[in-house]
Amino acid sequence: MNYVKTLLTLSIVILVFSCADSEQKQEQDTLFELLSPEQSGLSFINEVYNQKDFNIFKYRNFYNGGGVAIGDINNDSLPDIYLTANMGENKLFLNKGNLVFEDITETAGVGGFKPWSTGVVMADINADGLLDIYVSNAGNLEGNNHDNDLYINNGDLTFTESAKAFNLSETGFSTHASFFDYDLDGDLDAYILNNSNIPVSSLGYAAQREVRAQDWEGVPHIFKGVGDMLLRNDGGTFTNVSEEAGIYGSLIGFGLGVMVTDFNKDLYPDIYVSNDFYERDYLYINNTDGTFTESIKEFTNHLSLSAMGIDIADINNDGNNDIFVTDMLPEAEQRVKSVMEFEGYNVFQLKQEKDFFQQYIQNTLQLNNGNQTFSEIAYYSGIHATDWSWAGLIFDMDNDGYKDIFITNGINHDLTDLDFVDFFANEIIQKMALTGRKESIDSIINKMPVKPQPNYAYKNLKSLKFENANKEWGFDRDTRSNGAAYADLDLDGDLDLVINNVNEQVSLYKNTSDELDNNYIQVELNGPEKNLFAVGSSVIFYIEDQIIHNELIPSRGFQSSISYPITQGLGAKTTVDSIRVIWPDRKSVRLDNVAANQRVYVDYDPSHVLYEYPSKKTQALFKAKDNSVFFTHQENSFNDFDQEGLLYNKLSEEGPAFAVGDINADGLEDLFVGGGKGQSAQIYLQKKNAEFTPKGNAVFQKDAAFEDTAATLVDIDGDSDLDLIVGSGGNQQTEMLNYKTRIYLNDGRGNFNVSEQVLPSNRTNISVIKAADYDNDGDQDLFIGSRSVAGVYGVDPNHLLLENNGKGQFEDVSKRNAFDLKNAGMVTDALWVDINTDGNIDLITVSDWGSPKIFQSNGKQLILQSSELDELTGWWNTIESVDIDKDGDLDFILGNQGENIHYKPSQAQAIRMFINDFDANGSIEQIVCIAQENGDYPIHQKREITAQLVSLKKQNLKASDYARRNIQDLFGPDLLRSAIVKEVRYSSSILLINENGRFTSKALPPRAQFSCICDISCSDVNNDGHLDLITVGNDHEFKPQFSRLDASYGDVFLGDGQNNFTWMRAENSGISIKGEAKHLAKIKSADNKELLVVIRNNMKPLLYEAQ
User: Fold this and answer.
1) pLDDT, position 146
2) What CA–CA distance (Å, rounded) separates 498 from 489?
3) CB under 8 Å, gap of 24 or more: what pairs does 1082-1085 form?
4) Residue 996: Cβ-neighbour burial (10 angstroms; 0-12, 13-18, 19+)
5) What's the 3-state SS for 453-483?
6) The 1102-1106 sheet, strands edge to edge
7) What would the pLDDT profile of 638-682 be if each residue is shown by its tens digit?
8) Does the CA dihedral 420-422-426-427 come out positive or negative?
9) CB within 8 A of 820, min separation 6: which ones?
10) pLDDT at 835
11) Distance (Å, rounded) from C-alpha 787 to C-alpha 316?
12) 42 by DSSP, 3-state: which?
């Protein structure tokens, strides 16, 4: 059957069912109503079909689709619509009112004749008060003219193509463009976004960002094109200033999105570029002198790998713009395992070494912390996985006062379907594709699955979390959507939506928010002479304690641009306290007490005064001190995943051991910081001026072969000085003989010597050493806990209770006096506290894949007590005790992995780990699963589980078959009955409130859930009489498919004495910690000032002083 006819038939069938779908949804009164072409007159299909010489095998962007631009081309206040086509004619529709449109393409002269149009933006290029249309073109047919088009508005509903006259035509393989005034000279300059046409597979992760496209050697002319371009407007002619301005122009730039905003609030526009494939995104900070500095690594911690569309807006009404970038991670777990292939850890590391930064397959939501740092929280917010996503648009869809998120989704064929990939891997099939024979291409393409996906509409819950509102808002039909734009098309005060689809009718959604009780405000700007539409202006709404920031930048999402008037929902508010307009030239005007439900017109006036953002300089609680004296901790190079293929998180990089105490008896607390394997530990003595100085000790250099993972300073021999106990660990089976505890005896002057005493050892990964007099005999005993057994993660290690004979000699009494310690699990932290106030000190442990355990002491033995804590299974990292509510008993704060993770457990749905020798080869495997009603489904990809378990490989499972199978199907009841099974139902960090010996759990505030918490300090930091919390965390070492935990910069939470805590902004706390912070200690200086010491993995420690 002819492919084109088949495609047309399918389009008709899809259209018929879509109309039926639309009618059904209208009966359900959804927020958005899909209008048919017959209703609106908006009829357009971006038809894409494979040809002999031009198809998905010849052009990788074949299914990227077209764009949408909305703007008022005839100044009648009704926004008009322009749609781009890839293989057909572009279309311009005139808005006739009441959501009825007329196709005026032919008479307007804007249909275009290029074979592959992509992005489109409406902007007043020649500053005559009329919106022009700029169309980007691409495609890589030999001899193809893919110059961009500029249609200058003649003012009579006709246009004249004038790209060459403005020097805006020859711009490479363009995806999109954004017009803005980067040099503040009054006119609009241009950023042209290009997508390198070079085959990605030919690059080998080439790190040639600095080499401009035209300078690459050995590249065929058809692939060269040009890189991204910054064009300065010089009186109506655009000049390429990319290189001198600091804009990258390499062939490894695969731009799919560009967004302009002011990141650092200096009132100069900055630029964000989202790049597909292995090149990282760019964030260009405007230096205010015509140049830019690329700074993505300074502002963010990780990015989307297959970065597509981008939008930037304020999601939490704090006055700071946040960044949303789309990727292609599916939501449904079955589909993840059917279509996704994640890169291996070794490739990920290679890319890091080549300066491609940390990139993961997931949507990213970068929350602006207000101090030029961003916390990536897409997993926390619930918007991380929306399949093959293109446009991500942030706007208030229901006029409740908070911006929601809309995402277009779908692709014409599932190119990454793993069953198809296996089929295509056949050399014969590849040769068929390369022959260019139409029959061969058709037969291969017919093997590609066609699985349209619904677009996504996420309602903002006003808590940094979003809820899927597809069904309620009318977006639950399957589509193949790409570009999208919003505007108030019917002038009723809410934002309607236009979506460009592949091989189906354009979607026009009428917003019915005007039928709700929510109010709105609209602002239309009349700008200065050379920028009459005021592009680049900020409009800030002040409503009670909210600061809602909006920017007039039309180019947004994917290949599209939005209408110019700014629409802001107000919810129930009937008045805006004030509106501040900041013009592109930094002048400003304020409007006070503005009534809702109107469009406000604001004209630029040269007499408006220059504006500066209010200074945030306040007396912070803490101030960072110089940390140059400290050494940089360095982990040794070891890949746990080579040893245990099904691990999801490294165990060999737990960070340095750390201990605090007065080592030299001068009344000041000193520091011990352990080294990585092959690195000497170090002691730092505190001086009277609150500085630290390193103290050399040859004994540590001799023991550099040990990896220090736990330490404590305690007087073990009763000579009134602090001795040092250091434990070693890791996950290398070849190093297990070194996983033991060492004693260093203090000579009273801070000099240490290795004790001859050999402490008992289990040769396990030691995580914690805690000293206390558990038997009340006047000396210090030791608990030594371990997190894991090297090479067999999931198997519980043994722990040690060592009893001191009063002379510093220790005896292992674990089996005799603490037999129950065998049930402590994979211990990560522990505390000695008298929990029941009986005069005997008890032991509390927390663990990985376990629950908090209370080992109660009777003065002789430690006995495990059952309690309500047994239900709190989690990935616990740390525990701290304090009487938070001052009721006379001890409460606890527990640090967990948080809620910003891919696989989130719940009380209703556990995450389980099955540990067994599943293939009877003498090696232990651990299979992590999501518990569902009909079984437990592995989270591992087929490739990694079959590589580890040859027995599964022999089954020749298709990826689609594996995706549907649970662990019970894969291994059968006998193997599972003999397996160790662990489960987790809580990932949140929590407060445990002690109520007469029974505990009530309460989740810590949202900011405490953005990352794992590795250590906690409790004190009254603001002297209000209530205890506050300081937390630190982050963990970077996960397999790439699980992203990483890096959203914490250290947080201060102010307590109110009622078990409630409020997050303190970084500019007020003074704390901003990058990296993996593993330990936190609060110590006193000579003048009784509080010092905070932060110990980081693979970085220098940090030191803060209270102000």
Assistant:
1) 84
2) 10
3) 1082/1017, 1082/1019, 1082/1030, 1083/660, 1083/669, 1083/686, 1084/668, 1084/669, 1085/668, 1085/686, 1085/690
4) exposed
5) EECEEEEECCCCCEEECHHHHCCCCEECEEE
6) 622-624, 1102-1106, 1090-1097, 1076-1084
7) 999 999 999 999 999 988 999 999 999 999 999 999 999 999 999
8) positive
9) 855, 862, 863, 864
10) 94
11) 39
12) coil
Q: Looking at residue 59, what is its pLDDT?
A: 84
Two tokens, residue 778: 């006047």
- A 10 A CB-CB count for 968 gives 15
364: Cβ contacts below 8 Å, ≥ 6 apart: 302, 303, 304, 307, 323, 324, 325, 327, 376, 378, 384
Task: Return left, alpha or beta for 399; rule: phi > 0 is left, psi -120 to 50 is alpha, else beta.
Answer: left
pTM of the model: 0.95
Instruction: Say which residues have a Cβ less than 8 Å from residue 421's Cβ, sequence separation at least 6.
Output: 341
Of 686, 693, 695, 691, give the one whose Cα is nearest residue 667. Answer: 686
Q: Which helix (H) or strand (E) holds 1018?
A: strand 1013-1019
- Provide the pLDDT for residue 432: 65
Return the beta strands (E) in 696-774 as ranges: 708-714, 723-728, 741-746, 752-754, 765-772
Residue listed under structure tokens 């032991």: 843
Residue 857, exposed/middle/buried by CB under 10 A (0-12, 13-18, 19+)?
A: buried
Count CA atoms closer than 13 A to 154's CA, side-chain side: 11
Assigned token pair, 178: 């954004």
User: For position 430, what pLDDT does the model report?
Assistant: 63
How does DSSP classify residue 818? -
Quote the tokens at residue 637. 């190079």
Axis-axis angle for helices 427-435, 438-445 (nearest 10)? 130
User: Burial, 1025: exposed, middle or buried (Cβ in 10 Å; 0-12, 13-18, 19+)?
Assistant: exposed
SS3 774: coil
Whether residue 605 contacts residue 585, with contact meaning beta carbons closer than 8 Å, is answered with: no
Tokens of 179: 């017009």
pLDDT at 1009: 98
In this predicted structure, what is the pLDDT of residue 400?
98
The span from the CA of 1086 to the CA of 1104, in Å, is 15
Q: Contact at 8 Å (CB) between 416 and 340?
A: yes
The DSSP 8-state label assigned to residue 502 in this structure reads: B
- Ranges under pLDDT 50 in the chain: 1-26
Q: What is the structure's pLDDT at 388?
A: 94
Q: Using the Cα atoms of residue 756, residue 759, residue 763 and residue 766 in order, give the sign of their dihedral.
A: negative
- Count Cβ neighbours within 10 Å for each residue of 712-731 and write b for 16 or more, e otherwise: bbbbbbeeebbbbbbbbbbb
Write out pLDDT tens, residues 867-895.
Answer: 999 999 999 999 999 999 999 999 999 99
CA distances from 235 to 163, 178, 1038 (A): 15, 18, 52
How many CA atoms, within 13 angstroms, populate the side-chain half-sphere of residue 908? 1
Q: For residue 700, give the nearest of 665, 650, 750, 653 by alpha carbon.
A: 750
Measured CA to CA, the distance from residue 389 to residue 716 in angstroms comes to 61
Do strands 826-833 and 741-746 pair parallel, antiparallel, or not at all (unpaired)?
Answer: unpaired
- Altogether, the residues listed in the chain come to a count of 1107
Give the Cα separation of 270 and 215 in Å (integer): 27
**CA 585 centroid distance within chain:** 33
Q: What type of residue sits at position 519?
A: N
Task: Give the C-alpha separation, 38 to 42, whole Å.
Answer: 8
